[in-house]
Fold Phytoene synthase.
Amino acid sequence: MTGLALYDKTARDAADIVIARYSTSFALACRLLGPRPRTHVRTIYALVRVADEIVDGPAVAAGLSVPEAEAMLDELEAETYRAIAQGFSANLVVHAFALTARECGIGEDLVAPFFASMRTDLSTSTHDDASHDDYVYGSAEVVGLMCLQVFVNAGEPRPRPADARLVDGARRLGAAFQDVNFLRDLDHDAFALGRDYLGIGSGTVSRDAVLDRIDADLAAAAATVPHLPKDCRRAVTAAHDLFSELSRRLRAAEPGSGRVRVPDPVKARLAARAWLGFSPRKVLS
């Protein structure tokens, strides 16, 4: 393997390493995807992770000011658009993402809202209902929609839009994932980053109300899983069930008791259940 083919493979391998280092749970779910969508989904999450690191700590730790971090985020977004248009980037993670975007029909309509939400983290510390919804759409729902484009279009001669029912399921699953993570990181976001995504700190929404919204989104998303391509269902089921378990544990935990986690043996059981072809678990409050 030489030339562009070697470069493409190296870029995809680099994306795989990013995901393996940053999220063991996501890496596990990806292994349940079929070979057709698996590499593409990893490239999406690698770009998401790099952008997130610009606004969530490492860039500041390296000495960047907020304006410098914002400029770097702008550069990453511009490079992403160039790579999608040209089919090449000197940034390996961006190059890998662009390969996926070109094959699967991921365009600026999904990429721009993501970067807009990342930019919000540099300027907004407290969210109301409207800004929460905008942030979640850009930071999580569009990522679900990017993955859905992969599920539907990977390996096809030309990309096509996904069914509206699947679009709704992807958005609601992404929203549930993000709100679960907000609840898990509530103390860290408040004290380390000075952010309140949910309005719990300001008293505008209750913890139980957020959990009720999460469970409703998980239930709605679960109903769409049987309509996904077969080689995607097990991974989505595993991810759904992991976050359903997190939601259940969050509801049972005392506020301020530490970051809620799912023990590795429980993760393994959920993954095995999904691998065997079971439908997503019912949400248990």
In short: The mean pLDDT is 93. The two ends are 52 Å apart (CA to CA).
